[in-house]
Specification:
Layout lengths: L2 H131 L3
Length: 136
Amino acid sequence: MPAVVQVAIVGLSVALIALCIVTIRTLSRFEKAMDRVGTTADHLGEAITEARVVAHEAHEVLEVVSDAASRIQRVTTRFEGLSERALSVSRTVIEEVAAPVGMAAAVVRGVRSGLGLIASRLTHAKEAKPNNGGQS
């Protein structure tokens, strides 16, 4: 075999070996990249699962808050009714009880001042009798 052919075969062999090394390195890097993509996909799957759990819990919390809000609204409505009833009762008390009580108090004051005036005149009259004649 001529020397040129032998050199060409050696050169071709070195090129094939270099190509194999580059291919092996590329496949190794590709494999590492695929492992990273797989790991990222696993983490992403876990994050999606956790997000679903959080969303479910948030939905449950919203249901509880909604139920509590409707109960609070019902209680508020009942308090409104009670306040209207209390206002009606207080108006009734003022109109039906306060006016007669005020009149009764005025009558008591009138009777008291009338009795005070009568008592005052009676006590002055008793004191005035012994002094009027000067004679015993």
